[in-house]
Amino acid sequence: MFYVSLKYIRAFFFFFFFFFLASNHSSLVALGPSNHPLPYPTRLTSQSLKMHKDAWLPRPAFSLTGLSLFFSLVPPGWSMEVTVPTILNVLNGSDARLPCTFNSCYTVNHKQFSLNWTYQECNNCSEEMFLQFRMKIINLKLERFRDRVEFSGNPSKYDVSVTLRNVQLEDEGTYNCYIMNPPDRHRGHGKIYLKVLMEEPPERDSTVAVIVGASVGGFLAVVILVLMVVKCVRRKKEQKLSTDDLKTEEEGKTDGEGNADDGNK
Q1: Nearest to 117 by CA among 136, 89, 96, 140
Q2: Rounded Cα distance, 169 and 180, in Å
Q3: pLDDT at residue 257 in the model
Q4: Within 10 A of 30 (CB to CB), how many other CB atoms are there?
Q5: How many degrees, rounded to 5, is the angle at CA 66 between CA 60 and CA 70?
Q6: C-alpha pair distances (Å), 17 with each of 12, 42, 69, 124, 181
Q7: For position 200, what pLDDT does the model report?
Q8: Burial tier of 147 (Cβ tally within 10 Å: 0-12, 13-18, 19+)
Q9: Which residues on adjacent β-strands are paired with residue 159?
Q10: Is the peptide bond prior to 155 cis by the omega test (within 30 degrees of 0)?
Q11: 85-140 residue pLDDT tens
Q12: Most buried among 37, 73, 201, 255, by the most CB within 10 A?
């Protein structure tokens, strides 16, 4: 089943629009009785305004132009996309899951779906196939891996991951997963470099970072608190001064009125 997304619909409408413009631009030419374009300028008559019966058909050259525009507007999402980690660090003796997922425009049909997992020891070395999917999982059981390879994915959910048990130093190298999901014509490819570690990498001590962060945060909190207190104190002082000024003005007005009354008497 084909899933049509919005970007494909948009590409189709772009194609139709440009194709319509290109074809009409080539065909909207008034043809005379001899089926040749009329010279310009010319005197238009009722006979010259009659168009050829095939005048509205798109010309081949402009049809190809419309097709080229269509293919240029097709998004790159038509091809299959495979998602894998570039480098995978694994501790010696532990189990490693090699994740490989893919996106496809088509659902997985197990009768047509195919998968190949290969191992490559070095860049110039040949690839050794160790697992296949042809209607079912086929574990080739290479001498290198024997029974340590296990398929841990689900093709119906677009997951073709494998698990390598008891990883050894000799397992270090490049692992490739190749995917075909017809009718999708593009083959997906994912490449993982497996690096085997002899010991776990030292954990980063975050105690210093926590102490520094707490100290900085506490200092900022104290500064903000002090600023708020200072602001409140200043505001109270300003309010008190303004109140005192108002009282002084009122007392001055009262004294002025009292003196004026005494003078009148």
Answers
A1: 140
A2: 31
A3: 59
A4: 15
A5: 140
A6: 9, 32, 10, 50, 32
A7: 78
A8: exposed
A9: 101, 154
A10: no
A11: 999 999 999 999 999 999 988 999 999 999 999 999 999 999 999 999 999 999 99
A12: 73
* CA geometry: angle 107, 109, 111, nearest 5 deg: 170
What pLDDT does residue 161 have?
A: 97
pLDDT digits (tens, 9 = 90+) for 226-247: 887 777 777 667 767 777 777 6
CB 177 within 8 A of CB 117: yes
Strands of 188-197's sheet, edge to edge? Answer: 87-91, 188-197, 173-180, 114-120, 128-134, 137-139
Q: How far apart are CA 31 and CA 59, in angstroms?
A: 15
The CA-atom distances, in angstroms, between 200 and each of 16, 94, 173 are: 59, 11, 19
Q: CA of 47: how far to CAs of 41, 50, 94, 191, 202, in Å?
A: 16, 6, 89, 70, 92
Encoded tokens for 17: 């629009």
